[in-house]
Amino acid sequence: MPDSTMRPGKIVCIGRNYREHAKELGNEVPAEPLFFLKPSTSIIADGDSIMLPEQSERVEFEGEIGVVIGTRLTRASESEAERAISGVLAINDVTARDLQRKDSQWTRAKGFDTFCPMGNVAPGSHDLADLTVVTRVNGVEKQRASSAEMVFPIGKLLSYVSHVMTLEPGDIVATGTPSGVGQLARGDVVEVEVMGVSKVSNPVEARA
Ligand code: ZN
Asked: CA 143 to CA 134: how far, in whole Å?
């Protein structure tokens, strides 16, 4: 079990929310937001190791902008949803890509222990349309995008999810990854940064 102080009730992740990323994996952009859950047991903190599981031959990083819910949201409007955000953080939605392709849903591919590195939460209000996420592997930049490029903006995503499931204080929403995803190998160090806001850096190890 990863050691972390963060234990949200749920982590909601958005899929295919950047046009170029959907394309690089051979997918269309969805007509409505596509979302799934990651278990809170997948969370690790800055500096903790991502463990490559023996069940997968291709584990990839996905740098994402995360938001923390501060106020309960049920069937909320977009503006209510935006006002309910209590902080922003960097998230790495680590994914066993081969298992994701094999399975009809993504719980296994996205849910391994250590598959959700989370950075510090930057509290307060942020310009949600002007956040930049950058991913680096061994210091080399692999992903960079602005939240302005999202297919569905953050307020819309939260509103949409809240019409399905109540979002509670402490819940985390990861808002999708831009293009440039790639494989992680043992010995790599992967860093996701929401520029000027939050950063999480993790070494990669293989399970014995
Ligand atoms: Zn993702």
From this structure: 5
In angstroms, the CA 30 to CA 181 distance is 19
Residue 77, number of CB atoms within 10 A of its CB = 14
C-alpha neighbours within 13 Å on the C-beta side of residue 139: 0
**Domains of the chain, earliest start first:** 11-206 (3.90.850.10)
d(CA 202, CA 93): 12
- Give the environment of ion ligand 1: residues with CB less than 5 A: 62, 93, 177
CA distance 168 to 68: 9
Q: How far apart are CA 157 and CA 65, in angstroms?
A: 13
Q: How far is the CA of 110 from the centre of ligand 1 (A)?
A: 9
C-alpha of residue 93 to centroid of ligand 1, in Å:
5
Tens of each residue's pLDDT in the chain, 208 residues: 344 457 899 999 999 999 898 888 888 889 999 999 999 999 999 999 999 999 999 999 999 999 999 999 999 999 999 999 999 999 999 999 999 999 999 999 999 999 999 999 999 889 999 999 999 999 999 999 999 999 999 999 999 999 999 999 999 999 999 999 999 999 999 999 999 999 999 999 998 7
Q: Please state whether the predicted TM-score (pTM) of the whole model is above 0.85.
A: yes
C-alpha 13 – ligand 1 centre gap (Å): 6
